[in-house]
Every structure is written in structure tokens, then in C-alpha cells.
Write a structure and sequence with these properties.
Blueprint (H helix, E strand, L loop, with lengths): L3 H13 L2 H8 L4 H8 L4 E6 L6 H10 L3 E2 L8 E7 L7 H11 L3 E3 L6 H5 L7 E4 L6 H10 L4 E5 L3 H13 L5 E4 L14 E7 L14 H4 L2 H20 L1 E11 L8 H10 L3 E3 L10 E2 L6 E2 L5 E2 L17 H6 L5 H11 L3 E3 L1 H4 L4 E8 L14 H4 L9 E2 L10 E2 L2 H11 L7 E5 L2 E5 L1 H8 L3 E2 L5 E2 L9 E4 L1 E7 L2 E4 L1 H7 L7 E3 L2 H8 L6 H8 L7 E9 L2 E9 L3 E3 L3 H10 L5 H4 L1
Parallel strand pairs: 5-6, 5-8, 6-7, 8-9, 16-21, 25-26
Antiparallel strand pairs: 1-3, 1-4, 2-3, 7-22, 9-15, 10-15, 11-14, 12-13, 14-15, 17-18, 18-19, 19-23, 20-21, 23-24, 26-27, 27-28
Length: 585
């Protein structure tokens, strides 16, 4: 078995003569300088959760471990650590990095991946769509940016990745995310007017991920990018069709190949003449303009002359730069020149400029003044061809199943308000099985209540998410267990102070004893605290601690036991200068 040094030497030797290195050279990069950085491990980077009440404490811990702010992100929202990705030193640094992430105080994310949401133009109360959302780093970044008024619809077609998306969204305790499951190319029609913003971070070959995906040096050849092109265009075009007039769509990839970047952008502009590219600028970071010309490469990395490009596997004339399309007789001169003039508004991030991975972004704006002047999804041509006086048929959506997300039962909501002494009226409330979730009112007002168009000019009756396939809405707040609706720890991060009933306030000493594993019999707890009349089932314990008020979940049976995860327990222990739970055990 080879040691790590042998593997690194083999990779470096192969990379120097790879088709990927040839592509970088054709794109004007200094090959040696680019290779030097493209082969290095990435530093550990992450975002700070902006909506958590102990955010400043988290920042203090990060700085104590050597964290340095990312200069082009909002103040103290993202940090770079003085060690490689996944290689925190043994001891406090390694443990703290894991705890902060698992408890939702930070989100590990490569710095380059933060760029699309950072640059996206969108109001704070927008309804937005992340078309290819898993594992959820951009979704959660966008949701935190829009918190508390905007909503993110996070779409993911693959079931395995969908579970990861839901988990990451819940880990951060975010209310304003709705998870859907569609092929991005065929995202369901939703009620007008559509989305104010769309993020289309499309699947790609990952040629810019060499610092974390070492196999890409062997796996990539130019035909792989050409294979991805059609899917990337179709996803972006579908996203554009869902934009409101004036809305913005960010197209992005972690690829350096123009076939997946500028060529896709150009094709989207051809298919969606109501779109225009938006100039982008960001201080504190080096970004390069989009390319206006590029070469077509064969499988050895050699440039192919224009007259021979059609012999390439998976070739389409849409892969060509605008000037080459004109010379080859593939496109209209005026249209191609207009597109070429816009491509410089795209932005490229190269590995060696900012000590990151590579990335590509292009921001479109729906430039039409109204829907009637576009090929917008709600501009239904079939309906326009109907006889005068025709009105659409209102179709009934499918009946909900046990796995459907439905409006929460009013009687359950009222019982929870009484049980916990909390006002839930500011939220829309959703039920799926034995869970009840909280979400902003916008989820009900814009996604559920209105009628939605069919593909034949009729409409689906409102009071249903159909035809959008919603699998998760909002924040899991309450769970039914043993005929008792218990509050989940996630909702206590946001609303813990709002619970007035079913909660007992205890001294710090009692809180510490519970945290250290004390599971008293009910009689012992009453004798110790003087709190009597405790009901069986889910309950809350509150205490004023040195940094402020904390509210945690417990279960009352014969004994009183904590209902919070080990990681959160260890965070509380650390704040109280107690040993880690495993050390004490």
C-alpha cells in the first residue's frame, strides 16, 4: 500500500500533463502558478449562523482558535481557520469545530461557494428558489440572509441528498425554508407571480474543485463538460421562466470550463430574450470578467479548429463562442454580438487569486416590464388560443396522503398554545405525520393558498401545494410522543423565551446538576426545587445563567430526564466550565 507521499507525487505528476491543466493553459492561466495552488488542500472555512442568540460567543470561540474573517463577506459572517479542511488539531480545536457545526452555530462551507448568494440581488422579503439545493450550504446562507421575512424554496431531486438537505436546514433551526423534490428542469408550476430570485447552482464536472476532489484530475476530459451542457441550460431556462419581471437569477458552477459557464449563459440569453446580465462588483476579493472567446478541445487537450469541431463527441454549435458561431454560420450576427458584449459581466474566481477553489457566477435579470412581453411560465399560449369567453377549469388537486404536508389541525394548534402559553398566530403551521412545523406566513399566502396554473391553461384549486411537491415546510417545532406534544430543541433556539406555560424556572445549581446527568425521581425533584404539580410528559426547564436565559426540554415520568442532544449538552457544559460529558462519564 502506498503512503500518502507516494499518492501526492503521483497526482502531481499526472496533473501536470492532464487535460485539465491543458484547459487552464488555454484559458490564459500561468500553468505552474495555477497548478501549485490547485493541488494544495483547502483551508477550513465556514459561516457563522447569524440568527442564533449566542452568535457573539461563537465568534469569540472561533477567533480564539485563530479564525480570520473572510474580507468580502458581511462583518464577522464567515471565517478562515489556520488549518486545512477537516484537519483541525487534536484537542479543543477539533472538538469545538465539530460541536459548533453539529449544533448549528456554524456551517462548514468552502469560501468560493459563498459567492453566488453574496452577489445575488434580492429584497429581504423575497420568495426565492434554490434549484439544486443539497446539501444546503447556499440554501441556509440565503435563508439566514432573508430571515425573518423572506422564504427559500430549496429543491432537490435525489431522495438521499434530500434527507441531507432537511437535516442541515433543521440543524440550524431555520423557519423560512420549504423543501421540494423535483427535477430542476421540470420544477412544478407555482401560483403567480413566481419567484423574486432564483439560484441555479447546477450540477457540473467540478473542474474547479481540485483542492478537495482529487479524482477530478483523472476523471475529467472535455467531452464530460459537453455532456453536462444541455442539462445545465435546461435547469437555468426553467429557473428563468419562474422569475417575476425585475427578478434576478444567479447561475453558478464549480467548473472552469467555458462550455459549462459562458457557453451556457450565452444559450440561456438566446432562449430567454427577456433576460439580461447584471454587472457585479465586490470589494475585498479578486474576480475576473467572463470570457468572450474560448477554444474547443479534443480529449487530449489540443485545440480543435472551427472547421473540425463537429467531429467532437457530444458537440453542439451552442458550445462555441459567439464570434465562432458567426464565422461557422451557426448564429445571427447581431444576436451573437449582443450576447458577446454581455459575457464580460460574468465573473470567474481562480484558485490562486484568493486561496480558494475556483468558481463561476453569472447574474441574470428579468428585464421585461410585464409578463405579456415574455415567454414567462404564466403566459399560457394555449389559453390565448381559446375561444372568446372561455374561462379556465378549476381542477381538484390529489387528496393528501399520510406523507403530505398539510395545514396543521386547528384543535392541535389551540391545545399547544394553551399548553405552552405561546402565541402561534404570527406563523403558518404545517403538519406531516407526528410533527408540527412553524413557517413564515408567506408559505401559506404565496405557495399554498392561491390557485396554480396547469400546463393546459386551466388552474389547480388553491389550498394545496400541488403541483409543487413539498416534502418539508418550516422548522420542526413540536413532536407527538406518547400522546404528548413536546417542544423540540430547535424551536427553543428561536422562541424559547416565548414559552410561558409548561415551564419551570430553576436555580443555576439545579440546571447544572441536570446537565451533569442527575435524573431525579419526581419526588426528589419536588423536594429539591419546591416545584410541585408537575405534569407527566414533555416539559421545559428554564434558568438564568451567566450569559443569559436558557430553556431546555425534559421528560417527566417516574424520573426527570433531559431531552437535548449530547452536542448541545457539551456546548452548555463548556460555557459553564464543566468537563465534557464523555470525560465526566
Amino acid at each position: 500500500m502506498r503512503d500518502r507521499t507516494d499518492a501526492d507525487r503521483e497526482r502531481r505528476s499526472f496533473a501536470a500533463t492532464s487535460t485539465l491543466a491543458a484547459l487552464a493553459s488555454h484559458l490564459g492561466r500561468d500553468k505552474e502558478r495555477w497548478l501549485e495552488k490547485a493541488l494544495e488542500p483547502l483551508p477550513e472555512t465556514f459561516r457563522i449562523s447569524t440568527h442564533r442568540c449566542d452568535r457573539h460567543w461563537t465568534i469569540q470561540q472561533v477567533k480564539a482558535l485563530g479564525g480570520v474573517e473572510v474580507p468580502w463577506m458581511p462583518k464577522e459572517n464567515a471565517f478562515t481557520m489556520p488549518f486545512s479542511r477537516g484537519k483541525a488539531p487534536e484537542g479543543l480545536a477539533k472538538r469545538m469545530m465539530a460541536l459548533l457545526h453539529e449544533t448549528g452555530r456554524i456551517t462548514r462551507q468552502e469560501v468560493a461557494s459563498m459567492l453566488p448568494v453574496r452577489l445575488l440581488n434580492t429584497p429581504s422579503d423575497a420568495l426565492t428558489l434554490d434549484m439544486c439545493a443539497a446539501p444546503g450550504s447556499k440554501t441556509t446562507q440565503l435563508a439566514e440572509r432573508l430571515h425573518p421575512n423572506g422564504v427559500v424554496v430549496a429543491n432537490e431531486p435525489v431522495s438521499g441528498r434530500l434527507n441531507m438537505l432537511v437535516s442541515n436546514k433543521s440543524r440550524l433551526g431555520l423557519l423560512n425554508v420549504v423543501v421540494t423534490q423535483h427535477d430542476g428542469r421540470h420544477f412544478g408550476r407555482l401560483p403567480p407571480p413566481g419567484f423574486e430570485a432564483v439560484v441555479a447552482d447546477v450540477p457540473c464536472t467540478g473542474t474547479a474543485t481540485t483542492r478537495k476532489n482529487r479524482d477530478v484530475w483523472w476523471d475529467w476530459t472535455p467531452k464530460e463538460s459537453r455532456k453536462m451542457f444541455t442539462m445545465q441550460v435546461d435547469i437555468a431556462v426553467r429557473g428563468a421562466s419562474l422569475l417575476v419581471p425585475g427578478g434576478h437569477m444567479m447561475y453558478s458552477t464549480c467548473s472552469i470550463d467555458p462550455t459549462e459557464n459562458e457557453a451556457v449563459v450565452a444559450e440561456v440569453l438566446r432562449r430567454c430574450p427577456y433576460l439580461e446580465l447584471v454587472p457585479m462588483r465586490l470589494d475585498g476579493i479578486t474576480l475576473h470578467p467572463g470570457l468572450t472567446s474560448w477554444s474547443m478541445l479534443d480529449e487530449t487537450g489540443q485545440q480543435v479548429m472551427l472547421e473540425e469541431v463537429e467531429r467532437l463527441v457530444f458537440f453542439s454549435p451552442s458550445h462555441l463562442a459567439p464570434a465562432d458561431r458567426i464565422r461557422g454560420g451557426y448564429g445571427d450576427k447581431d444576436e451573437e454580438e449582443a450576447i458577446e458584449n454581455q459575457l464580460g459581466r460574468c465573473r470567474r474566481m481562480w484558485h490562486e487569486d484568493n486561496d480558494t477553489g475556483g468558481f463561476f457566477v453569472a447574474q441574470f435579470r428579468h428585464a421585461a416590464k410585464d409578463e405579456a412581453t415574455t415567454a414567462h411560465v404564466y403566459h399560457n399560449r394555449r389559453a390565448n388560443r381559446r375561444e372568446k369567453g372561455w374561462s379556465p377549469t378549476v381542477k381538484q388537486p390529489p387528496e393528501p396522503t399520510l406523507n403530505s404536508v398539510v395545514v396543521a389541525n386547528e384543535a392541535i394548534v389551540q391545545s399547544l398554545e394553551t399548553l405552552y402559553g405561546i402565541d402561534l398566530s404570527p406563523y403558518s403551521l404545517w403538519q406531516r405525520g407526528k410533527r408540527l412545523n412553524l413557517a413564515p406566513p408567506m408559505v401559506h399566502e404565496r405557495l399554498f393558498k392561491p390557485e396554480a396554473p396547469t400546463n393546459k391553461g386551466d388552474v389547480w384549486r388553491g389550498d394545496s401545494f400541488h403541483p409543487v411537491r413539498v416534502v418539508h415546510a418550516g422548522l420542526p417545532a413540536f413532536t407527538l410522543k406518547k400522546d404528548s406534544w413536546r417542544s423540540r430543541q430547535e424551536v427553543l433556539y428561536s422562541l424559547g423565551d416565548s414559552f410561558q406555560n409548561n415551564v419551570a424556572t430553576v436555580d443555576e445549581s439545579v440546571f447544572v446538576r441536570l446537565l451533569r446527568g442527575w435524573a431525579p425521581l419526581l419526588e426528589e425533584f419536588i423536594e429539591t426545587t419546591g416545584i410541585a404539580g408537575l405534569p407527566s410528559g414533555a416539559y421545559l426547564i428554564r434558568s438564568e445563567l451567566p450569559w443569559g436565559r436558557e430553556t431546555i426540554s425534559v421528560w417527566i415520568g417516574a424520573r426527570i430526564t433531559l431531552m437535548i442532544g449530547v452536542d448541545e449538552q457539551n456546548i452548555l457544559r463548556y460555557k459553564l466550565s464543566l468537563p465534557w460529558r464523555d470525560e465526566e462519564e
